[in-house]
Amino acid sequence: MSAGSVDVAVVVVTYNSEHDIADLLDSVPAALGELTYSVVVVDNGSADGTLVVLDGRHDCVVVRSTNDGYAAGINRAVRSSPPASAVLVLNPDATLDPESVPLMIDVLRKPGVGIVAPRVREADGSLSPTLRRGPTLGRVGGLSFTGLAAFTERIEDPREYEAEHEVDWAVGAILLIDRECFDALGGLDESYFLYSEETDFSLRARNLGWATVYTPQAGAMHVGGGSGESATTHTMKIINRVRLYRRLTDDRRAWVYFVLTVLIEVRRGVLGHRKSWPTVRALLRPSTRPAPLGASDAFLPR
């Protein structure tokens, strides 16, 4: 590596994360072990005490930003980091186990590997099912209760978390990415603003020959929902799923995916999921879609 470079560039995006970020940063030194590293935290306009917490620390570089979205924040953090052979993307509500990153680096150095996901647990110690299958028409409903791969993206079978293997994609709370892979893809796609950016990244990486690999040897904890989910963020999540699928396939299949998504959200609304009704409205009335997505110019979101 060149002068001033490090082994790992640790990047974090905060948004109203005052109750989580200190625990994450405290876990970093032991997690990196003997690796050299940098830590850059981009704050996307927090309105709570996040910046007070960050300003009181001396173990990270803080970049103040307006909220241009999660992907934009990660890309900005990478640009603000020194040269590194790997990028460690972390959610502020995650914590890393000691020596976890060297174990992930060992996997990342294997031929063809571009992204590594660790074994993640919930706050109570139970397995967090972070592995996912790629989106298809059959999986649009997220029918996890069937236990059938044809109908669910989320992989819940504990046996799938026992051994190292390649996956379609993994939840982006803790991901180690080869810097060459990151640069080859131009970073995360900022058009998603929030949600689906890690899905898009892994699938685009695979198209270029970079695999996403899960390893149970490295551990971490993810509390989840640190910034909370509102009706708006739920709408963003669902619309971005439609946008992602449209970018992966032809318009005919995308229309079917769209219609199925509307029906599923209506069903959820009838069953009491209140956040689904604003989502149905946004799906059927493009002008009501969240402005940051830039997806209001066509009925079938681009």
From TrEMBL:
Does Disulfide bond show up as a keyword for this record? no
Q: Which CDD domains match?
A: GT_2_like_c
Protein name as it appears in the record? Glycosyltransferase family 2 protein
Concerning PANTHER family, the annotation shows: RHAMNOSYLTRANSFERASE WBBL
Species of provenance: Jiangella aurantiaca
| Location of the Glycosyltransferase 2-like domain | 10-129
Q: Which GO terms describe its molecular function?
A: transferase activity
- InterPro entries documented for this protein: Glyco_trans_2-like, Nucleotide-diphossugar_trans
Keyword annotations from UniProtKB, A to Z: Transferase
